[in-house]
Task: structure prediction
Amino acid sequence: MATRLSIYALFVCFILCALLPQLSADEPKLEPLGINLEGYDYPFPVHYLKLKEQGQDLELAYMDVQPETPNGHTIILMHGKNFCGAYWKRTASDLAAAGFRVVIPDQIGFGKSTKADQIQYSFQMMARHMEQLLDELKIENTAVLGHSMGGMVATRFALDYPNRTEKLILCNPIGLEDWKAKGVPYRSIDAWEASELKKSPAGIRKYQLESYYDGKWKEQYDPWVELLARPTLSPEYPRLAHVNALTYDMIFTQPVCYEFGNLKMPTLLIIGQRDRTALGKDAVSAELKAELGDYPQLGRQTQQAIPGSQLVELEGIGHLPPIEAYEQFFPPLIGFLEDK
Result:
């Protein structure tokens, strides 16, 4: 009997050893990256705008992509919560080819911009920073495209600076509903920070696989997991985790959906219909969870709330149309921008 068990144990060990390289190959080995993405090359030259905010000296990173044949129009591309300006590379290149000047900021707290951990974050602050950036670049007015959290920033900018907003485009923006009013419990900044400190590369990949891509992974998604995951390996990550907690609190407590009716500029909604993003739905009942983040319904409600707005529904697409389905995302965008 002992001999038979030994043989069986050796057989199991052999099988596991044979499978180990295959299993580990699925998990990429990542190198640490600084929380300001030091050493990571953006697709276009990066410039910095010096800001004074709440007694602190800050630097806002941005890219300014100049077209070879200008059409006289500018567009600002605003990134989402889990992203930075780099993921707009293809969009910016094609817009510049069509004659648009393309400005791509990293909001304070994100990407290559200052990780300010001692300020109060607000969408009003971010909108004001965009105004200061336009002033620095001597741009009078602009179209504004916001994705995910960037949709909330773009909405606030359009509300606060309507005379500088030619057109507004919202691509799967968060904030189409007030989660707090719907019954999602408030989560303290400390609780958000504790959650952020538990993040790992494997956990980030799992979240994006389930939440963005419906369990279907493609190589083109890898860079955006790595860019989010590698800073978690930095010794400075606790500071970034605190900043992330502050911006989560901003998103949850500063809804813009009640003001959609005040938007007067031409507005386009591009909504991936598979999206179910909602902040805090991991802390609610199954019944409430099923009601949150219903983007097909939210997109139609928002179109009705914004006077004269247009809605493009992308069937079978999730939270990230510019990455998951660029060929479906870009044509309605450029068509709307070029429409006189």
Q: What stands out?
A: The chain has 13 helices and eight strands. The longest helix spans residues 2-25.
